[in-house]
Design brief:
Helix content: 40-55%
Strand order of the largest sheet: 6-5-7-8-9
Strand content: 15-25%
Length: about 500
């Protein structure tokens, strides 16, 4: 392996099987990932990434995954997707991503056509899709669930534990050394043709060349933060991910809710945003919507000047004295910067602002609805129960203002609503629906003790027009609620 100026030479290290190890050796304690856990942003270093990848890769070897075997991943864009993909590559497998919104039949086509030997599923809902079509997948030997547990599936933590106990780093090195540049590393199924999706085979040499191009073009640099929400089942996000790890930048993963993208950009402060035009338009519209009409032209001019000055500085070009002076003035102007450099409240601030509203049932008129407000009367969101057909089975719903979204607050409010539904309304069960891709809300449901019931499909226009997204249904019964309280939960 040859290293030039901190970047691995793709001619001597073309295999994706060596990417995680190589990055850990070069960037060590630098941050490779930021992601949300229980409402807070946590970080993962390059060294920690390699440790997790190594353990899971060794666990895959112990399960019988060999060089050239196909390994599918059925999950949303999240840090675990990156970890298990790198683990599969490190074990010498060919990765086959599957869109998380695919129907069971669509999953069957991709997994079956590629001949996948093993599949990583995000959660029980995704495992259920594979279970429905398992009879049509004779080559599929193992199902691994990333979050929680699922009947008939191995947990990701069990795979990692087995890898730590049984794995031998020498076997992973042997496999990486034996992979040729023109061997395949990834198969992307595209719907850009007539008939069923076709698998496009991508080689190690192609990906190494792409990483080298990213270095030469200076798309990213050490210290850059790349916000990633695009699906890793698509080649664009795959290239961004590989380029980031090659260069030593940081990937900031979205929380799973399209409606929270703009707020998360304010929390993560990315320097690079790979995206489709629609999201750029939304970001700008939301930002300008926070500015009083009489100041919008002033703020727009300040943004244009800031972009021009920053680009010139990055290119090493001279900035005119007038522009530099005006830039410094605006940078010191708190009235301007409060619109440009806004940061959302912390979890503690959010909880303090609405704790009284969550605790006081009498504030909930109209069958359990209450509005959360800050001490100065600003609207923060709402929680509520609504009845469709059966008044004994209301549906839980909540909506927090995009600027103060936090899973911890959503969980507290939802738990209070469940208590209200069972203790005050004497409900026999409570249901809740959320988007399949909305990871944060699904975690809220699970933390509240609700169980997955089914997945169904609905047409949505967000984040992309005319896109078919899955919806998931969760439920908790009165007996389950009682058991949860009797356990002291």
């Amino acid at each position: 392996m040859t290293v030039q100026d901190g970047i691995t030479d793709p001619a001597s290290c073309a295999a994706m099987a060596d990417l995680a190890r190589s990055a850990a050796e070069r960037f060590r304690d630098a941050v490779v990932a930021r992601y949300q856990r229980d409402g807070d942003w946590v970080e993962l270093t390059y060294t920690e990434l390699w440790e997790r990848v190594r353990d899971i890769a060794s666990g895959l070897v112990a399960l019988g995954v060999d060089v050239g075997d196909r390994v599918s991943i059925l999950a949303n864009t999240r840090v675990e997707f990156t970890i298990v993909q790198l683990a599969a590559s490190t074990a010498g497998a060919i990765v086959v991503p599957v869109y998380p919104t695919n129907s069971p039949e669509e999953c069957e086509w991709v997994v079956g056509d590629s001949g996948a030997k093993l599949i990583f599923c995000e959660d029980a809902a995704q495992v259920a899709k594979i279970d429905q079509v398992r009879a049509g997948l004779p080559e599929l030997e193992h199902v691994i669930v990333i979050d929680g547990e699922a009947e008939g599936a191995i947990t990701l933590s069990d795979v990692a534990t087995r890898g730590r106990e049984d794995g031998e780093d020498g076997e992973l090195r042997r496999r990486a050394d034996g992979i040729a540049a023109d061997d395949p590393c990834l198969i992307i199924y595209t719907s850009g043709t007539t008939g069923p999706p076709k698998g496009v085979v991508l080689t190690n040499r192609g990906f190494a060349t792409g990483r080298r191009s990213a270095v030469e073009m200076k798309l990213f640099d050490v210290g850059d933060v790349i916000y990633l929400y695009l699906p890793l089942a698509h080649v664009f996000a795959q290239l961004v991910q590989a380029d980031c790890i090659e260069i030593g930048a940081t990937l900031a993963y979205w929380g799973g809710d399209p409606k929270q993208i703009v707020g998360e950009l304010g929390s993560t402060h990315p320097t690079v945003l790979p995206s489709v035009p629609r999201i750029f338009e939304k970001v700008y519209a939301v930002a300008m919507g926070m500015v009083p009409p009489e100041r919008q032209q002033e703020i727009a001019d300040a943004i244009r000047l800031g972009i021009a000055v920053r680009l010139a500085q990055r290119r090493g070009e001279e900035v005119s004295p007038d522009d530099a002076e005006r830039f410094d003035e605006l940078d010191r102007d708190e009235e301007v910067m409060r619109f440009i450099d806004w940061e959302p409240p912390t979890l503690a601030e959010q909880r303090a602002a609405v704790a009284d509203h969550i605790a006081e049932y009498e504030r909930w008129p109209d069958h359990g609805r209450f509005v959360a407000e800050s001490p100065d009367g600003q609207f923060l969101g709402w929680f509520g129960l609504r009845v469709h057909t059966d008044p004994h089975v209301p549906e839980l719903g909540y909506r927090l203002h995009r600027r103060i979204w936090c899973q911890g607050l959503a969980t507290e409010g939802s738990l209070a609503l469940l208590d209200y539904a069972f203790a005050q309304l004497h409900a026999s069960a409570v249901r809740a629906e959320t988007m399949l891709v909305n990871h944060a809300s699904r975690r809220v449901m699970e933390k509240c003790g609700m169980t997955y019931i089914k997945t169904f499909h609905v047409q949505f226009d967000n984040p992309l027009p005319d896109t078919d997204h899955g919806e998931v249904l969760y439920q908790i019964t009165r007996n389950q609620w009682r058991a949860k309280h009797s356990d002291g939960a």
